[in-house]
Design a protein that fits this description.
This protein has one domain. Helices cover 82% and strands 0% of the residues. The chain is built from 11 helices and no strands. Helix 1 runs parallel beside helix 9.
């Protein structure tokens, strides 16, 4: 397998993963609907940053440890589940007992909001062992023997990132086009409560998953 054929083949596999609705898509879409384009793109870049880390880890065998070690995988799974539940509770709590416009728009304060969205994107991705499982199962199959594994792992992750950014850009622009309606306090509260409930559900499902 050549480097070019590996990149092309992996792109086809990663494209399918990208368009399947999941936690990353829900997080970026919610950020776009409530916070606007800048925080949403920051969240997407954060998710991409996490993917790069997973790609590098998978290439050098760190992710294999998570697959082989029950203790390591369980620790990451519990940490990820706890983070998702905490994030979901925070979203729901912010819609209660406050003015709706203030509670439902935590990501609308300029550079600090973009940084917060990026950081949450990174943590959401890195604390999801399912992402690590995908990378460790797939990336080693696309590492040509003649290519440096670390660089090739990063290149494959960049391919996935590029596809993800195209997908997220479409979602962000679509959400922005109807943001006037989405800015209504009742709609914002509903978005945060639904998203928060979904995050809690993701967390509980992850915590209960044996592997």
């Amino acid at each position: 397998m050549t480097v070019t054929s590996a990149l092309v083949s992996f792109a086809a596999v990663a494209a399918l993963l990208t368009i399947v609705p999941g936690l990353d898509t829900a997080f970026v879409l919610r950020t776009a609907m409530v916070g606007g384009r800048r925080p949403a793109f920051a969240a997407a870049v954060g998710i991409g940053t996490g993917s790069l880390a997973w790609g590098a880890a998978a290439a050098v065998g760190v992710s294999a440890l998570l697959t082989a070690s029950t203790v390591a995988y369980t620790a990451l799974r519990i940490a990820g589940a706890g983070y998702l539940v905490w994030l979901g509770v925070q979203l729901i709590r912010e819609t209660l007992g406050r003015r709706a416009t203030a509670a439902a728009r935590p990501e609308t304060t300029g550079a600090s909001s973009a940084w917060r969205a990026w950081r949450r994107g990174v943590l959401t991705n890195l604390l999801n062992p399912k992402v690590g499982a995908f990378y460790v199962a797939v990336i080693p199959q696309f590492l040509p023997e003649q290519a440096p594994h670390l660089l090739m792992g990063l290149a494959l992750a960049l391919v996935h990132n590029a596809e993800g950014m195209l997908w997220f850009t479409g979602l962000i622009l679509a959400a922005h086009s109807v943001r006037g309606w989405l800015r209504r306090p009742t709609v914002q509260r509903a978005i945060d409560r639904v998203t928060g409930t979904a995050l809690i559900g993701f967390g509980l499902k992850l915590a209960a998953s044996p592997r």
